[in-house]
Specification:
about 35% helix; alpha/beta; five-stranded parallel beta sheet; globular
């Protein structure tokens, strides 16, 4: 999962996802310490190179490397796709990680989580947050709230190696994260 040292990002990398993320990303572009990159439509390797080339202390972008896995997971639980679809997306992404053509952001900032509908909310705040709870940060969908969150990113353990993705189909919406909690049913 780790890119080679010469292609690793030198900045704190934040993926901005959720409600109004396009407008929020544009609002961040005016701050000199932030490279706000609209990379959602870029190929994963191109997005990874753009993030690695940035020299600002913070790189905030909209190119979620887990996007296709997340969509397949959501569609699996909404009965719009099969387990095989999810497995293909996971293996494809793991190949991108191994090749250095994709890299996990340091943090996910999830804007407007209260307005994210259905299973997607369970992906961001459940299946993904379970792996590194202090790395998935819900925030109000407002410029000032996003800036405040960037100023106060918590220190935490890093993301685990991406092999956890091979078991993501067992992270059931409405239950993910509950099984290991004291007192959980």
């Amino acid at each position: 999962m780790a890119p080679s040292p010469d292609s690793a990002p030198r900045s704190t990398v934040v993926a901005l996802v959720g409600t109004g993320s396009d407008e929020l990303l544009c609002g961040l572009a005016r701050f000199p310490a932030i490279a706000a990159l609209a990379l959602r439509e870029a190929e994963p390797a191109d997005a990874t190179r753009a993030v690695a080339a940035a020299s600002s202390p913070y790189v905030v972008h909209d190119a979620d490397p887990l996007e296709h896995v997340a969509a397949a997971w959501v569609e699996l639980y909404e009965e719009k796709a099969t387990l095989g679809t999810l497995e293909v997306e996971v293996e494809t992404l793991l190949g991108l990680f191994r090749a250095g053509d994709a890299v996990m952001p340091d943090y996910y900032v999830v804007a407007g989580p209260e307005s994210i509908e259905g299973t997607w909310r369970h992906w961001w705040l459940g299946a993904l947050a379970l792996r590194a709870p202090s790395r998935v940060l819900p925030v109000e969908a407002a410029d000032s709230a996003v800036r405040a969150r960037l100023r106060a990113l918590p220190a935490s353990r890093p993301w685990p190696e991406p092999d956890w993705l091979r078991r993501v189909q067992f992270d059931i919406p409405d239950r993910v994260g509950l099984r290991d909690q004291p007192g959980a049913a």
